[in-house]
Write a structure and sequence with these properties.
With 1126 residues, this protein is an alpha+beta fold. It is built from 21 helices and 57 strands. This is PAN2-PAN3 deadenylation complex catalytic subunit PAN2.
Amino acid sequence: MDNWYEVRTTCDTNINVAAPISALAFDPYQELLWTGNEKGRVTSHFSSGLHRYTSFRAHLNPVRQILVCDRGVISLSSDSLRLTNRRGLIKWTLSNEDTTNLHCMTYTTIPNSEILAAGKQRNMLVINIARGIIVKKVESESDIVVMRKSRLVCCGANSGEVTLMDPRTFKVEHRVQAHTGTISDIDTIGNLLLTCGSSARLGNLIIDPLVKVYDIRTMRPLVPMPFPNGPCFLKMHPKLSTTVFITSRSGQFHVCDIGNTSDIHFYQANTSSYITTIDLSPSGEMLAFGDAASFVHLWEDRKEAKINAYSNPIELPAIPTPPNITISEKSSLSLIGMPYYKEQLLSVWPSNMKFEVGNPPPKIDPDILNNMKMIDFVGYSPNPGNKKRNQVVRYSRNKHKDGTPKFRSEKERELQSGKSSRGPSSLFDNEAELDATSTKMPKYYKRVEIQYSRFGVDDFDFEFYNKTRYAGLETHITNSYCNPLLQVLFFTPVLRLITRSHIGTACTKENCLCCELGFLFRMLENAGGRNCQASNFLRAFSTIPQALALGLFEPDEPDENTPYSVLIQNFNRFILEQLHQECNSNNNPRLLKSLPSEQTPHSMIQQLFGMQVASISKCQCETQTDRLTTSFVVDLQFSSKTHKGKERESKTKAFADILRSSIQREIQQRAWCNNCQQYVPTTAKKIPKSLPSVLSINCGTGTSVPLEIWRTHDGQNAWLPERISMDIDDENILTVKELSSDTIVDVNTSGSSKNANYELMAIISQVRVEKEIPHLVAFIKVPKNELDKSPWYLFNDFSVKNITEQEVFNFQGVWKMPVVLYYSRVDISDLMDTSDLPSEIDKTILFKDISISKHHLTNKKSSVLLTPEELPQPGTLAAIDAEFVALSQEETEIRSDGTKSVIRPSRLSLARVSVLRGEGPKEGTPFIDDYIAASEPVVDYLTEYSGIKAGDLDPGSSKHTLVPLKIAYKKLRLLLDLGCVFVGHGLKKDFRIINILVPPEQVIDTVDIFHIKNRQRKISLRFLAWYLLNQNIQTDTHDSIEDAHTALLIYKKSLQLKSEGKFEKILEDIYNEGHKHNWKPPHGIFPTSHIESSSSSYLTLPETFETNTMEISPETIENQNSEHPK
């Protein structure tokens, strides 16, 4: 054993894949040496020349161990195992929730059939090599970092303990505390067990200079073997049962005899780095080292050394003999094969540079080719006449993608053509739900996006994503990451009543989030499963300077690193604080029955979400400062100890303990002391004084949150409890307990703020898929009176699905992480009294002349305000029309075939809204004609279609009635709540941009009245006015009063035609006339033969109507209409 020498050194020449060697293994069946590196690549080398044989990427993480069997090579990384044959073809891969932090593996009693894998995880895994499945799980009592097998399975733990297990039953037979620190390596042969490791001395880990030897029959220690350089790797000689190779990190190794410790042979490996792994061949003739510089060093003890005494032949590729080819002038160039290139050719285009180039050229008619006459190089042939000029064959383009719905227009075309739609009717068709242990992400968790056709967003099939009664929120709006939290707040019944009461008051704040939240909640209440959008709320949110300073705005182009979990947690804290400020007044109504008087200094938000906390700061000089604050959100504080034992203990800490320590905590910090007049170490305490009705919790972000802590322990009991109990005793000590889901909760009807039972009502989770933009989803438990199959619903923006409770509490997959929790008291309905909330709606806004324009001309008003006697009743008709301006241009792309694809539609904003009386003595007289002040830059006034000019929306120059958007919206909301029935043309798009949801029974749309369902064409208001009323409107521009009044007259005309039994015939005539004139009314010519003239229809206006300053006659209105036609 004294003639070892280095024969070969090799490394990977490709700098892109070269990495420190992390694992080595000689093949016991063939002359191969297998290596694994830190980048997850496995490479094999042939014979003593270390010629490259195979190389492949086996894992994304470093390879920690390699085990070679007759079927192939088994490689192990932290989260996966893979069996690959010796040519590099994958046989199976094992990666699931059970493979979280693997470190080592070894054979069981059945070589080449079963292996045992373990690591720093709860269970050891018995894996069938043939099938690649887990056949048994063995609970591990410690973190295992190295395993070897002889008669028993020897497991070296991170704590320095060696455990010996029966390889059949996996029961622990013996234990020995070999080292006080950690285990570096162990090896065993026969009845001998050798260990090396570290010991804890003075708080540090020091490498033990001894190799400890044990007899596993009696577990008695034998004489240790000294190795002053620090032993890190051990290998027993396979032929000489008492010879061991001891190696240090620096490359020094000894060849020793265990029975004779004085027989030592010293060697030094020539390495520029440090040794990372070693292995000894089954023949005992070769020794291999791997270092951190990606080098493999091969040593031998004789010439012509072999890895195995008898090896199987290696399968080599058959190299064909090149043919003898004679090249002449008439030989084809394809006779010569293409050479082999190591680099990619120029023709290998990346996917992001591949584009469609349009349809292939049409085939030439065979009749043309048969009758063609050639003159020089030009062919002439008579036209067979079987096609029209410029007519080509139409090629169908499949634009539909899997997992996305077809457009509504596409479905209608299929129905009209008699074709049945083969696509799924819902996103959830044939999709398995999550159970308690699943880790695969269902497709309905993916980020959803709206697709646009040439018909706009109305052509998108939102029903594909939502089959429930609850409305989703759209995503094409800036800062729509707030959608999940807005849904959670909506399903907080008391907050819904607070905001509904607030919008009925005369709130004067222009960008009031409480008002906008109330308007949004009213839409969600009336939606009945239809999609809504929070555009007005998010617009008001984007104008608040504090939100900008806190960094709450979503980036223009989010990427995979956008911290949505941090954004939603900060927004959760911000929105509750903002609502508190906006709802706080001198006469706050009492919601909590426990409060003494009807009026209280606590705002309604404080009474619902507030937790009173006493902050006590005490200096070393015994000076104490007390301060009572109200906290709306609890931030979970996870312990992050550096000591490994404590770190493991924190991961098993109960949720109740973490919540209690997050609320009631004591920290040491430096603070200013008025007595000492300097910054000194102080003790700060947080002591809760009361408990909230609704408990809002931020779950922490980043590396402070251990991912494993959220995973279920046994597949049934989740770490996150569904119910908790909190109690503050007389000494202000907080106690938090977890209640099982089947526990009968004692509903506390006393209204005490010192003790409460809570039930989980909502979870907001971040969904992150590798190399994709993360997004947020909400799990919400709906009220009991609205139960379906399960009380839990998943809100993924406009995708809504009823899910099981198991799916809510399943955090096995790393793609889902909770970020915000909401708990509600089980007795909140008995605790809160909302009868004192203001219920009267401020109707005076309809009777006031409100304008913020500095040049508002009251003597030239185009409307007459309502009087209290004219207050609309349920069913009152009101004609309405709106005009809009563009805040951003449409983003489109032109495909190679010339078609246009909409990437993002233009963003429109309400610029003018006009509402006319639809019945009564003043029928047709406008009572609202408001221009809306622009709060954002306008890129296009769309004057041709809106009649809005530059300056009309500027308070400094406008001469019209100019109001903020909130005032105009509040008027329309009030008319809607009073039960008005709106008459107009194309109201669906108008209401969508205004962001108000009107029930179908309160909408009369003339575009739907005069429409034949099996035809795609929807008739314009201008053409209907020309045909039915003999009027030319919108000749130069649009006017909302004219359009609203025209729609009202057309509706009245439809009632007349229906009563006379002529409606169906007239509707068919309109379509025929439209095809005849290409849907453009000829100027000065009216279809008098079909419909009686209605040119005097404007004379239905009252003869005169008064304003505060002047009288306006019908002639004045007619003159104004002629000056500004629509």
